[in-house]
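Researcher: I'd like a structural prediction for the single chain below. Treat it as a standalone chain; there are no partners to consider.
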Amino acid sequence: MLNKTWDVDIQIAGQPAAKKLLLNGVAPYEFTTANPEADEQIVHGNPRWPCCPPFEKDLAGLFHHVTWRAVAVGAELEAPAAWRFTDSLSTLRFLRSAWSHPAGYAGLPPDTVVAAAELGLPGVVARADLDEDAAFCRVRMAWPRAVNATLVAFDGAGTVVRRLELGGGSASHQMVMLGAEGPIRRLELRATYPLHEAAPNAAVVPAASAPVGTLIEVDEVAYVGLGDYLDVLTGVEACEGGVPGGAGFDGSGKLAFLPNHDYELQLTTRVTVAHPSTPEAAAEVDEFVYLRTKGLPGLNAVARTGDELEPYVRGAYAGGRAGAIYREEPVTLAFAEGFHVAVPLSARPPGSAAEHSVLLKMQLLVTPEVATGADTVFTVTDDDWIATHHGAGTPPPPDRGVFPWFPVKARAHSDPTGMRSTDPLRQRLATLTQRPGVTCGLADPLDVTGTVLVAPPQGGGPNPDASGELWAAGARFTAAVRVEGAGFVDRRPFVAGDETALSRSGGTWTVEDGALRVSATGPAVALFGEPAWDHLTVVVGIAAPEAGAALSAGVGVGVAADGTAPRGLFASVDVPAGGGPARLVVRRRETPGGPLAEVGAADLDGVADPTALEVTAFDDRLRASVGAAVVEVDRGEIRAGRLCLTAEGDALFRSLQVRGLDMYAFPFAVSRFRSFTEHIGSWSGRLDEISPDALGPGTTTATVASLWSATAAAVTAAMAPDAPSAEREQAFATWVSALGLPLKDEVTELELSRLVDGAQTRALLIESPEPLDFTAEIELTLIQRKHVGPLPPIGPLPPVGPIAPTHLAVREALAHVPLTPVRQPGPGLPPVDEAIVDAEQLGDDLRLRLHPAFAGAGTLSVVLVEAEPPRRLYHGPVIPPLVAGKPAVMRAESVGPLPHPPAGSELPAALAGAEPGTVLLVTNDLMVLLGRGRLQPADVDVEVPVQVLQNGDGHRALVIPLAGSGAIALSPGRHRLTFRLTRERWPTTDLPDDLSTYVREATIALDL
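Model: Treating it as a single chain, here is the predicted structure.
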C-alpha cells in the first residue's frame, strides 16, 4: 500500500478556521464552502467577507498597552508601583528610579508625557509580567547613543524565547516590534553603559554605571495576546479563503492521486488548552483514513455507457425539440465546469515508483446506425493501425466502393464556453459573495467556463453553401465521446497483407477469404497496437476452421513482451471438440513467461459462426462478453499495453474492430433537408383550400371563431413550451374534429392549406414531413401587404381671404433663432420633426397635414427628395383647420426642380444625406427650415396577430388569425408567412454565434 500523510492544522479559536489539507507539499486546498453552517459563521464573524480589511487593521484593536500620557508630570513611577495594561491584568514595573515628564527626545508631539528612568547600573530597567501568552510585543522608547538597549522575552517556564539587541540610541523615539520563537509571558528592558577605555585587542569592554542624569524614556509598552492573534489569523484565513477568484477561493483546487490505487491518510489534530492559573496542556490525536481512487469519470466500468459523465453534461444537441438536426448542423456535447475534456492525469508504469503526467484529450465521434451502401462513412480517432503497419511497402489506401463501412478521421474539436454553474457549492458561495454587504466587486462564482465538444458534418457530401460537408440525408447516428488518438482498427473483412502488420509467435498466420487464419499445434499469439494503448473496446469475430472442431481463441489487452506467453489479461471463447459446453474465460499472466491463471468464466448457451467476442478495457476493470454472457475482472496492475489475438490450436478471425472506450453516447437523427430554409422552401407554391364539410355533409360542426371562443385558454396553455405534448395533441384533435379537416396521409414536402368560409380565409393549415416546433423554437409572423390610397376628401375649403401671418411673419418670428439644420422652434411653432403630421402624393401634387400652429402661415414651399430627379420644389397655401386644434392642410403644386438655395440657407445642411421620400417644409425664400417628414407609402406591411396550434408530434399546425380576443378572417390580398427558427444548442452566457445557436429564417408569399 502506498502511504501518503496529510497534515491537518485546525485552530480552535473564536472564529471558524478554513481547513488546509497539504499533500506532500502540494499547495493548500481550501474548503471555505465546506458546509452551510460554516458559511453562516464566516459571515457572522466577518460581516464584510470576503472583502476583508488589511491584516494590520485587524491587529490594531488587539494591542494591550500602557502609557503615561495622562499621568501628571513629576509623578514617581518606580516599583513597587505596577502599571496595568489596558483590558488586562498584566503589569509593568520600573526597577529603578523613574518618574513622568515631558519627552526630551524628538519624534513625539510637544509636551507628550512619557516615563523616564535613570540608567545607573547596568541591568533591567523595566519588566512586564503578562497574564497570558503574547504573540509579540511593541515598545516605543528613546535612549542615549552611548547606551546599549536590549529586549529579552521569556516564556512561562522562564526560558528565553527571544533576545533583541537594539544597540546605541538616537536622538528620537523608536518603535520596536518583538516577535519570539514561542509564547511570551515576561518582557524585560535592559540597558548597559560600556566603558570608553577598551582593553587592548578587546572586542567588548565591561559595562559600567552610567553617568548621573543618563535617562531612558519609554512612551509605550504593548502586546498582542497569542489567543487573540490566532483568532485574527483564523479570521483572515476564513475571510480570504485563498485569493478571491483563485482555486482556493472557489474550491476548485487540484490534488493529484494515481487512479485505481489504495491510499492511507494520516490526520494529526493538536488541541491546546491554556489559562493564566495553570500551564498550558496539549494533546495530539492521530486518525487514519483509507481510500481507493477511481479513474477519470467516464473511463471506469459502469452498467450503462455515460453513467459517470451524466452529471456533468449540460447539453447534448441532437436537433432540439424537433428531434432531428439539419444536414448542415454540427452535433455538440457541452460539459459543465467540473469536467474538462483535456486533462493532465498522473500515471505510474507498473513496477515503477516514478510518476508522470499524461494529457488525456477527448473527441466526439459519430457512427451511423446502419450502412446504407458502400462507403458509409463513420468518424474515427486515428488511422487503422493494421492498414498503416503492413510489413512491406507503402500501405495501400482503403478500397472505396468495396466494403460497406469507410472510416474517416474526425474533424471534431472542442471549445470553451461561458455558462452559469449549477453546482450547489458554487451557488452557496455566490450567495455569500454577491450579497449586498460585499463591496469589493468580486466576480460572480456562478459565471464559469465549461467545454463543448463539436462534431461537424461529415460523410454526406460537400455543403454547396459553405466550406465543409453535410451529414447523409435521413440517416440515424450515434455520437460518442472517446479519447483523442485512441487506438483504431477496422478489418471487416481482413485483406491480404494484414498478417504482415502483426508480430506473430507460434503457428502459421494467413489471410484467406477475408479471414485471418491461424494453424497451430499449441499456443499462438499475434501482437499489434502501441504500448500506450488503453481504454479500448475490441470486437473480434471468432470461428472454428471446421464444424465441430475444438476452438480456443480470443483477445489479450495490456500485453507486454513478445512470444507465446506475454504478460496481460486474455479473454477467449473455449469450445471443446465434439460440441461440448462452451465457455467465456478471462485469464491473467502477471509476468512474461509466467503461469496463466483463470480469473473469471461464464458458460455459453451456444456458439454462433462467427462468435462475436467483445472485450472492453475500462480504467479499473476488464469486461468480456459474448451475447448475454458477461465476465468482469479487476485489471489491477495490468494497465496500458499492446493488444493481441490468441489461439490454442487452429482458429479463424473473421473480423477485428478496435475503437476507443465510449465514455458517453447519445443518438441523433438527420433531416432530409439541408437546412431549415430548405425545409420551409420545399413548399411547392400550391395553396390548397379546405371548405366546410370537406369530409362529407355534417362533418364540420363549428367555426374557427366559435372554436377559438370556447378553447382559447386551453390552446394557449397547450402551446406553452413546458406543456406535455399529449395536451397539444388533444387540443389539436378537438379542432380537427370540429372543423372536419381532411389531413394528408403522406407528406413529403411542406404543405399549406387555407380554411375558407365562402370567400374568406379563416385559418391556415401547415403540414410538414418533419416536425416544426412552434412552442419554443419557431416564431411565426403573418404580414399583410395593404394598399394605402388617398385620404378621404377634407370637404369644401374656406374662402381664401387676406391671411395676416404670411411667411414673412413666420420668418420674423424665427429671426432670433440661430440658423441650424435642426433648430428649436420660434414662438408658437413646433420642433422641426413635429411640424409635418403626414404627407402623401396625389398625382403630381403633395398634400401635407401640418401642426395646428401653422394654421395662419399663408403660402409655404415644400422640397421633396427623390431618387430621380433628386430634388423637386412644391408651392401652395396652408388651409386652416375647420376645428380648432386639428392639423392644418397644405396642398402644394409642383413648381419644378429645386433651384440652388441662397447663401445662408438652412436647406443644404438639411438635404445632406436625406433619403428619398424625405419632405422638407421651408419658407418661400428657401432660407428657413420649418418642418421635416416622409411621404406615406402607397403600400404598407401590417402584421396580423396569430395563434399557432400544433399537434403532439409537430407535423401539423393551425395558424389562427386574431384581433383583440376574437378570431378573424384574413382580408384578400398578398400575405407573407415568415418562419424564424432559433435553437440554442447548449446553455451559455456567451453572445450567440453560429456554433452555439442555430438561427435561420424563411418566408413564403401567399395570395389569398
